[in-house]
Design goal:
alpha/beta, Rossmann fold, eight-stranded mixed beta sheet, 10 helices
């Protein structure tokens, strides 16, 4: 399904389950699309959730854009909910999706029920964080073939073959300019000081597979939000919903219910 946003972007989305169940938006990561949520799409409708799963602007089957802004993505979700005549929804985001989820919760608190932020961050401020972000941007721009090799390294072993293959296919499909623009926006993201506005129940999840760097960023987000809950997913890594789906789903479903 498609609908046109207020700035004339054609947003592709799919819904799953009964609309009378609790609306829950699943927001994918950088370079991905709605198919990143395959385990949850197969599972959550049976658990009483009405899933709304968009391809964010510049990704999947949605329109390409000249400039990628996180705030525009949050507005897209708001307009999508209005299009579906849904007043409030759970917002679940992984990686880039977690960034968009935070922006949405700050900009549209009245539309946010519960918030799940996974393998994500609320700011890029330290030298290490900036270097990591801009090194990925430089890799995409100059040697995009290294992305495929980095996937082999990040998702080693037969147990992660599905994750590895999914991202190889999705990175091969996405337009390089769209990927660069989105990465640039993420590198400049900083919402930490606004997170005290978030009064909704919040669950912060992070896999321990990418080490202290990822844990530190998740802890920073957790500390900025009053009464949020931080959970570490053993063996998880960005995106934990694909790497350790059973552990991810257990935490998310229990929290949302």
């Amino acid at each position: 399904m498609h609908f046109e946003t207020s700035d004339e972007v054609e947003l592709h989305f799919i819904t799953y389950g009964e609309k009378t169940n609790k609306p829950t938006v699943l927001i994918h990561g950088l370079g991905a699309d709605h198919e990143m949520w395959k385990p949850q799409i197969e599972n959550y409708p049976k658990k009483g959730f009405f899933l709304i799963v968009p391809d964010m602007r510049g990704h999947g089957s949605s329109s390409k854009v000249n400039a990628f802004r996180i705030r525009d993505c949050a507005r897209d979700i708001c307009e999508l909910l209005d299009h579906l005549e849904i007043k409030t929804a759970n917002i679940v985001g992984v990686s880039m999706g977690g960034v968009i989820a935070q922006q949405f919760a700050c900009d549209y608190p009245e539309k946010t029920s519960k918030l799940v932020i996974t393998d994500s961050f609320s700011e890029v401020s330290s030298l290490t964080e900036k270097l990591a972000g801009w090194m990925q941007w430089l890799t995409i721009k100059i040697v995009p073939s290294l992305l495929s090799k980095s996937l082999d390294s990040a998702y080693k072993g037969d147990g992660k073959a599905e994750v590895r293959n999914y991202f190889k296919k999705s990175f091969a499909r996405i337009d390089k300019k769209q990927l660069l623009n989105a990465r640039k926006a993420l590198n400049r993201f900083n919402i930490t000081k606004q997170l005290d506005k978030v009064k909704n129940p919040v669950l912060v999840l992070v896999g321990d597979g990418f080490g202290k760097f990822a844990l530190r960023m998740a802890k920073k987000t957790d500390e900025a939000i009053k009464d949020s809950k931080l959970k570490v997913l053993k063996g998880g890594s960005d995106p934990s919903n694909l790497v350790v789906p059973e552990k991810f789903d257990k935490e998310v479903i229990n929290f949302l219910k």
